[in-house]
Amino acid sequence: MTHNAFGIDNLRLAVLIDAENVPRYSIKSVMEEIAIYGTPTIKRIYGDWTSPTIAGWKASLLENAITPIQQYSYTTGKNSSDSAMIIDAMDILYTEKTDGFVIVSSDSDFTRLAIRLREAGQRVVGIGERKTPSAFIAACDKFTYIEVIHESNEEARAETEESDHKYQQQYRAKRRNVARMPVVKVPDDIVLIIADSIAALAGDSGAVFMGELGNLILKKQPDFDCRSFGYMSLSAMVKSIDRFETEFRQTTDPNIKHVFVRDKEAT
What is the model's pTM? Predict the structure, then answer.
C-alpha cells in the first residue's frame, strides 16, 4: 500500500492549468510533481490557442495527455482563462468523482476557487512561480513553486520543437546558472515552526511521528518545501538541525521503520 503526500491512498485529482500564467518548459516536471499527490484523472489546460504566445505547447500536451480547452481573449490584456477554469472546476466538483484539485497558475484570481473547493471537502494543491500572491498560496492545502521543482529535478528540460528554440535557449541558459540544490542553513523562523509543531503534537514521550509533523507544518505554511533548503525530505532537514533528535521505530512490517523526532530544548 502506498501513500501520497497527504497520507491518503489513490487520491483522484483534477488538474487545471492556466497556460497564460505558467511557463511551458515546466509542464513535464509539473506533471511528475503532481504524481506525488495522487492520480490525475482529469487533465485540462486553458488558453487562447489561436494566440502565438502559447502556440508552442502542442508537443508537451501530447506527451502528457493533457486536453487543451479553447478560451478566446475577449479583451486585450485580460487573462481569458480564469472564468473558464473556475466554471469547469465547479462542474467537476459536482459531477465528477474527485478527491482533490491541482490548480497550476501564479494568478491570485483563483484564491476564492481554492477556498470554495476546500469548503467542499476537496484537497487543493497549488503550483506556480515565486511571484504567486500570498493569498492564493494560503488558500491551498499545499503550494509548490515551479522553480523549486526544477532545481530539484535533473530531468527537467526545455521543449524540443524547433519552433520553441528561443525558449529552449532561455531555459538551458537558466539551468546552467542554477547550482544543484545547495544546502543552506535552515532559517530561524522555520526552526521555530518545527519546534512549535512538535510541542503541539508531542505526547508524554515528547516524540512526534515525522509524517504528522510534516502535515501540521503544511497547515501552518502551505508553501513549506524542504527542497528550498537543499533537502529532499523533511527527515533529512530535521536531522541537520542540532536542536532536534530523531529515532527510528520498528513497525509490524519488518521492512518498515517510522521516524520520530523530539525537541531537545523542550522542558
Answer: 0.77
